[in-house]
Amino acid sequence: MTSATRGRRRDALANSERLIAAARKVFASGGQGSLEEIAGEAGVGVATLYRHFSSRESLTRAVYRSIMRDELLPLLRHSCAQGSARKSFLLIVERLLELLDRERGLIASSANFAVLTDDMLREFLEPFAVLLRHAQEANEIRADLQPYDIPRVLSILVVGLSTPPASPADRRRYVSLVFDAMRPDQAEPLPPLDEKDVVEGMRSGFTAIRIASSSRHPESSPREGIHVQPGEFG
Questions:
Q1: Alpha carbon separation from 151 to 70, 116, 163, 194, 211 (Å, rounded)
Q2: What is the Cα–Cα distance from 66 to 159, expressed in whole angstroms?
Q3: Hey, which end of the chain has fewer CB within 10 Å, N or C?
Q4: Average pLDDT score, the chain
Q5: pLDDT tens digit string along 16-36?
Q6: What is the rounded radius of gyration, in angstroms, for the C-alpha atoms of the chain?
């Protein structure tokens, strides 16, 4: 790779990151904003925006992934290393709901927020599986839950409590209610999962995770996936 090629890739990555940061700023102001407004906030032209993001939905997806990567991935790393796994799940959901409440424009900008949320949460299937195992070993969460269940349950909570938005008190109430239903005490056996859905869900979740370090792939775009080290979650 020539120095000129590396320079172009660095410039492209910098523009992509500026556009995502600009979109987050616009979304946090309460509106979804026009693509022209977002490009202007980033200091680039609309043509540059379209070179990186072919549609509003692709930009919205990149912003959501940025929130997950910057805000939730460190929390997951910490949670997998110590503390109550059940409390960690509660904290993760509450934190994500707080972030989405702060950046309401992201929800308005998405063509299908429910599908987008489900896709994003599946990218965390590996650390969720580790947390679930820890919680089950500590007898904090019922033993018949499977890793595939976790993104689904979290997606139900996130979407249900974000559209329409719930108050902080209501969020805590219903998140606690759902996680209390996962306790092993007097739990009735769950109906079986559809095996086809499980296989497809596991495949799409693990495919979405890029097992790579950003230091090895400095030219990678933040749009391309959540970066985790192999086996870093135990």
A1: 18, 12, 18, 15, 19
A2: 18
A3: N
A4: 80
A5: 999 999 999 998 886 678 899
A6: 19
What letter represents residue 117's amino acid?
Answer: T
Domains of the chain with bracketed CATH: 11-53 (1.10.10), 63-185 (1.10.357.10)
Residue with token string 């999962």: 193
* Closest to 113 (Cα-Cα) out of 167, 65, 162: 162
Give CA–CA dist 120/68, Å, rounded. Answer: 8
Amino acid at the residue 169:
A
* Cα–Cα distance, 63 to 47 (Å, whole number): 19
Q: Which residues of 10-43 are buried (b: 16+ CB within 10 A; e: fewer)?
A: eeebebbbbbbbbbbebbeeeebbebebbbbbbe
d(CA 71, CA 95): 8
Cα–Cα distances in angstroms (integers) from residue 231 to residues 52, 92, 227, in the given order = 31, 20, 12
Residue pair 148/202 in contact (Cβ under 8 Å)? The answer is yes
Say what the pLDDT of residue 210 is: 38
Q: What is the pTM of this model?
A: 0.75
For residues 104 and 55, the answer to whether their CB atoms sit within 8 Å is no
C-alpha dihedral, 77 to 83 to 87 to 89, nearest 10° = 20
Instruction: Return d(Cα 104, Cα 164) in angstroms, integer.
Output: 10
